[in-house]
Amino acid sequence: MGKMVVCDSCGAEFEENLAKCPYCGSMNVKGAEREYMEKLEDVQDDMEELEDAPLDELNDTVKKQGRFLLKVFLVVLAVVGILALAFFFMERRYQWDPKAEYAWQQEYYPRLNQLYEEGDYDGMVDLAMEAMGEDNAAIWKWEHYDFYEAYFNCRDFDEMHNRLGKEKLLNSEYILLFQEEWRLVLLEENDQVKLTDRDWEVLRPYIERAGEALSSDWGMSEEEYEKLWNLAKENYYIMSYEDCRDFVEQWLKE
Q: Quick one: which of 110, 174, 184, 222 could link to 210 by a disulfide (CB 3.0–4.6 Å)?
């Protein structure tokens, strides 16, 4: 498994080589740049093959040259866009204030630790969300961050699933609910997550309910479930937003 990074938008952890966050779909600059550079190399290889083509094949290859040039043009545009985004994110990171982050940690880590030790997990999540505002970077290094993120997902799942039987959700909420259920079901397969026995004891009832909801609420066949499971397995046991969206959109049509 490659180096892991944390999504600037949703705080989820995923492999650095991925072009997009598999949770929220936000672009990962390094992964996207790597993907497009690989495409550019493929185009360059194609052009070299064109140059080396025998004379008796030129008539056929010349017809393809226009498509190659269009492909090169589109890829170059994409790379320029990626570099522009990279510059934008570098500018954002340049404004990062390590002193402010350290001060945040000194102020809130002890309070978060106390709530965690007392078993007040709702208070722990509420405090973290209130303290972080739109910037959640300061909590990434907290020793119980993996549990915080998992419990945050549990609350999301619980709230939306309780609403499911009482009201019609927005399409985006159905997708998010489906993804949250998969996140919890796949949690034990993700060897990057660091949780204590106590953490698992708290999370397991939510995991079991999420598994039951996946089996009963969406009308999935065994083949559909296995297909989605294998897609997540190929993605290091992370269910992508796109795969959830595709399934839920079809489910809504039916």
A: 184
**Same domain for 105 and 87:** no
Question: Cβ distance 9 to 20 under 8 Å?
Answer: no
**What is the reported pLDDT for 30?**
72
Residue that finishes a domain, picked among 94, 122, 156: 94
Look up the domain containing 227 and give its range.
Answer: 144-253
Four-CA torsion 127, 132, 134, 137, nearest 10 degrees: -130
The token pair at 151 is 């419990």
Q: How does the average pLDDT of the chain come out, rounded?
A: 80
Number of H helices, E strands in the chain: 9, 2
Mean of pLDDT values over 112-137? 86
C-alpha distance across the termini of the chain, in Å: 38
- Residue 38 and residue 81 share a domain: yes
- What CA–CA distances, in Å, run from 105 to 2, 72, 131, 150? 28, 47, 10, 20
Assign 189 a pLDDT band (cuts: 50, 70, 90): very high
Count of domains forming the chain: 3
